[in-house]
Amino acid sequence: MRTICNLNRKWAFAKGISQPPEEMPALWNFVNLPHTWNGIDGQDGGGDYYRGSCCYVKSLKKADLPKAEAYFLEINGANASADVYLNGTHLRHHDGGFSTWRVDLTDALKEENLLAILVDNSPNEQVYPQMADFTFYGGLYRNVNLICVPQSHFDMDYFGGPGIQVTPTVEEADAKVAVEVFLTNRKPEQTVRYHLYNAEGTEIGSYEGGRNANFRIRSAHLWQGKKDPYLYRCTAELVKNGEVLDSVSTRFGCRAFRIDPERGFILNGEEYPLRGVSRHQDRWEVGNALKPEHHREDMDLICELGATTIRLAHYQHDQYFYDLCDERGLVVWAEIPYISRHMPGGRENTLSQMKELIVQNYNHPSIVVWGLSNEITMGGTEDSDLLENHRLLNDLCHRMDKTRLTTLAALSNCPMDAKYLEIPDVVSYNHYFGWYGGETEMNGPWFDKFHQKHPNKPIGCSEYGAEALNWHTSDPQQGDYTEEYQAKYHEDLIRQFFPRKFIWATHVWNMFDFGCDARSEGGENGQNHKGLVTIDRKYKKDAFYAYKAWLSDEPFVHICGKRYVDRVEDVTRITVYSNQPKVELFADGVSLGVQEREDHFFYFDVPNAGQTELEAIAGACRDTSRIRKVEQFNEDYRLKEAGTVLNWFDITQMEGYLSLNSKFGDIMATIPGKMLILSLLAKKMPKGGKGGGMDASSLSGMMDMLSSFTLIRLTGMMGTANIHFTKEELLDLNSKLNKIKAPKK
User: Fold this and answer.
1) Which of 304, 335, 375, 484 is catalytic?
2) What is the CATH number of the domain that holds 27?
3) Element containing residue 102 per DSSP (H, E)
4) Same domain, 461 and 606
5) Which residues of the chain have a pLDDT value below 70?
6) In sequence order, what are the residues at sequence separation of 6 or more whose Cβ sits closer than 8 angstroms to the Cβ of residue 26?
7) Residues 515, 287: Cα–Cα separation, whole Å
8) 239 and 337 in contact (C-beta within 8 Å)?
9) Cut 0.70: pTM above it
């Protein structure tokens, strides 16, 4: 029978190693898996985290292993490329940092063994991702196992899959269940015995035969999303003369779905609005080397929010998290890291990563769409190689999985008639009107326009969000990074998106703050702060509760602004969120009135004198907070940039002329200013190689969305595109801008 041995403990580790050692190193550090070498330097800003080759080494004694006829090393995540050596013999190379893959050790295994795994996250032109707004943590960051099996066994080589594929089809009250298994070295006298179990563990069907089996479940208990995520189980046993040689098992769910261009997502014949979040997997000083308790905490927070869907961006996530999605009833968008910059040399890698994604995740009922790419048209939409790559991926998905649809996340400035939008079954857009330029009220009308123009193409919003840190104000403005603006932004977007049922799915960007070492904005470098929850999962921002008010059935009331205590105004606005119909707010025990609102957002004007204790009551729910009157604004609440090359107050400004403190849109509105910026970008843009490839005109078009940001702020953000400025370059640019008249308002 199959035995699985976990190999996570005690690996010798060293950076900068490109060849395996001949013997166990005496002076290397020892680490336990999961492990990443970028847990700290990948989140501290500067865009300088270590990207290179590292080596993990472990000794294995065959006498300590279970007796078996074949041994397979299973690696569940090695970012981004890896090579496996056993006793100095190179056994396998793998490209792609987010999937499971296996290596046959059988023939190379000796009595005493030295196992070495070289892992490399260096920039290259073949393996995705290479340009994206997140840190590419290197390491063996998921479990590593040794799977011991007989000579005849369920397949280990078929794209890292489980060896069993279950396809349920709902037919009225029943469900047909087709099962296919994949075998290695099967002998003529060997058969496969199948068992079907319900969620209670009762066997409801069995069959013995070959590689395929078919069952019918009468009056099938459907997987109904969050309402009732019911799961069946199928076990397959390889049998010889009644003896079980090997066995595999998988859970599955019986459900039918479709995506309607007018009614949105339909689950088992009923409208089931997909309103939820996107998730990056990393954590503070842990990076992507997560433990099961981290995944469970993430799932608990997402469920507390009330989400019905998760976009698992921008890569294949841990199997354990997909299992949690099945169990908790979250509908999933799963995708590969074909992102930001199309690389002509990366086509085979997109195809291999998609094959692994589908084969390894085929049995998860939570997954309904395969994502082909994300914002891949940063360099333009008419690239013939890019279009061909998408067609190949789309055809591959439909060939390998006839039960699910395909989708993609389009860049905001992608034209509605772009050819590549015609390729997948459904599409979504990443829009940030109200954060990167534009106004929040532009979002709903944009989707109305797309829907009117393409009435038969389902449209969704795959990303939208605004950054928030521990900055505060009573006058929130776009781009101020305050918790108050983020909350206001999401209030506006909820009101626009949620009533439009033709929008097949909405995914907030992001559920959690995440590492992006190249970022330099918001006062805490090295992170994207659009999360509804901080990267350490310790603080839920006010916007979190805005969604909970709309999506959760758990009664609650929440007073916003708990971190914003000191206020200068005599009367201050207090916002309360609740999913209860009525809210009453008390100030020092005195009622300020009862409000009843259908949009779940309640606003009270509160007299501000001395210190005031606040209490909100909604049904049986209560929440408390406090405010304090101060004469001068508390500077601890005002944005302070950290580690900037040049601060705004160091910049020379001349009345009536441009400067680095001018808004990008104002600079681009002048002919000399636009020529100056385009000339600068042409010099600064990477010309291929390490993460470059976007031309200056394409970047300029993308940056039209950033018109409301000051140029000095944008220069700090450009690190994500590998564009960096020195203090001298910025001062020189400012002196040139000082000679250009600002446009008249």
Assistant:
1) 375
2) 2.60.120.260
3) strand 101-104
4) no
5) 642-645, 647-649, 685-706, 720-721
6) none
7) 8
8) no
9) yes
